[in-house]
Write a structure and sequence with these properties.
Helix content: 40-55%
Structural class: alpha/beta
Distance between the termini: 37 Å
Bound molecules: NADP nicotinamide-adenine-dinucleotide phosphate
Number of helices: 14
Number of strands: 17
């Protein structure tokens, strides 16, 4: 496909889909969006570390051909005010795998959010957030090493679809009248109204991905996190459909928590993943008190949103929490924090979130040796107390360095 501003690297090849797998050449083209605010600083630093790790792991036999694509302020400059050019979507569809820095949402630009637009247009239905602790990283809990959880948050429905009607508008009054007079609903006069759609299709494809991940990565449980005790036909239905997909499609490798006790006396049989569920409020408590009891969590959009940030805080905060938005194949990895505009071009912030999102991307294409090197080098660097400002202010005797110097230190430690 021909592009206007995007330059496809000549020394790389396309990742393709074969059957139900990705076929990754030795010089794959990976797309990146630099991002706004601190985006350029953390992208520059991370690109150097990813390249150095791939070189260290494969000695030149494998190499990424990076292809810049555009969104946000840089896109607006290049494409005459267009913050989200169509060819950015085309490139992600064609090249399948990419990574992005944080994006500012233009005020009055016609977008609710650039990030939400990317997720919706590409139907990136699973938001994946692995939460684990790295030695040396300051944490507010006593045993951050007990946290090793991957959250699968549904990304396309729930209250995020934006079906909302402001109090006092004719649309609101029309809906309120219908609900009261035809559906027998009761609620206060002048209430704002919102709709929360949760479907079998959306729930099942998310839980399917969560179970597949647990199987591939050796987690022993998948927990459905819901508020079904109150919202029976949305959150409760998510729980029901989650159990259904486990039974229908993974019946030979999963058991429910009830079966664990009724048939196996509480002793998990080898080769079986336990499917369980927890009500969202108790899940927050358990994530603090007994995180070691959880592996993969699957949640509707809003629960997953809250949980992702709360759990990230347990292991060192948003500055290093990675994430990805994934469809059946197309995957866009991303820094989970925003653009932190006050630090723009200061070469100051922690590149960890984008860096580890890149590690997820390397895992996604099967280059685990390279991502493993980065995890270990990051840990070593933090243990040497060479850190960016955010960690330095929480650590005694730390040497505070710039983003680029932190990248140098990690590369030294690869
Ligand atoms: P933010 O950019 O995430 O920044 C909030 C605070 O988090 C920063 O002031 C900083 O804390 C800390 N922080 C963020 N990134 C860090 C890093 N890499 N290293 C160390 N500390 C980091 O949130 P915001 O200020 O609410 O949002 C700013 C803009 O970002 C908005 O336009 C918003 O729409 C956008 N946004 C984009 C995304 C995305 O693209 N995925 C996500 C969220 C928000 P201290 O002040 O304590 O140093």
């Amino acid at each position: 496909m021909a592009y206007d501003k995007i330059v496809v690297p000549q020394d790389g090849q396309k990742i393709t889909i074969q059957g139900d797998k990705l076929k990754v050449p030795d010089h794959p083209i990976l797309a990146f969006i630099e991002g706004d605010g601190i985006g350029p600083d953390i992208t520059r630093a991370s690109l150097r570390i990813w390249d150095a790790a791939v070189q260290a792991a494969y000695g030149g036999q494998r190499k990424v051909a990076w292809m810049e694509i555009y969104a946000g302020e840089k896109a607006s400059r290049l494409y005459s005010g267009n913050y989200m050019p169509e060819e950015t979507f085309d490139a992600l569809r064609e090249f399948i795998v990419g990574i992005k820095g944080p994006l500012t949402t233009p005020i009055g630009g016609g977008f609710r959010s650039l990030n939400v637009t990317l997720r919706q247009v590409l139907d990136l239905y699973a938001c994946v957030r692995p939460i684990r602790w790295y030695q040396g990283v300051p944490s507010p809990v006593k045993h951050p090493e007990d946290v090793n959880i991957v959250i699968f948050r549904e990304n396309t429905e729930d209250v995020y679809v934006g079906i909302e009607y402001e109090a006092g508008t004719p649309e609101n009054e029309k809906l309120a009248k219908f609900l009261r007079e035809e559906m027998g609903a009761t609620f206060f006069e002048g209430a704002g109204l919102g709709v929360k759609p949760i479907s079998a299709f959306g729930s099942k494809r998310l839980v399917r991905k969560a179970i597949q991940h647990a199987l591939n990565e050796g987690f022993d449980s998948v927990t459905l996190v819901h508020k079904g005790n109150i919202q029976k036909f949305t959150e409760g239905a998510f729980r029901k459909w989650g159990y259904e997909v486990a039974k229908e499609e993974f019946g030979d490798v999963t058991i429910t928590e009830d079966e664990l006790w009724s048939q196996y006396n509480g002793k998990q049989p080898k080769g079986k993943i336990v499917i369980k569920d927890r009500i969202a409020d108790i899940m927050f408590q358990l994530a603090l008190l007994r995180p070691q009891e959880f592996g993969v969590l699957a949640a509707p959009n809003l629960n997953g949103d809250y949980l992702s940030d709360a759990l990230a805080a347990e292991v060192g905060g948003l500055g290093i929490a990675p994430g990805a938005n994934i469809a059946d194949f197309v995957a866009l990895f991303e820094a989970t924090h925003g653009t932190a505009p006050k630090y723009t071009n200061q070469d100051k912030v922690n590149p960890g979130s984008l860096l580890f999102s890149g590690c997820m991307m390397l895992d996604y294409i099967g280059w685990r040796e390279a991502s493993g090197l980065i995890h270990r080098a990051f840990e070593k660097t933090v243990l040497q107390k060479v850190v960016t400002y955010d960690f330095a202010r929480q650590m005694e005797g730390a040497t505070e360095v710039k983003t680029s110097e932190f990248a140098d230190a990690i590369i030294q430690n690869l």
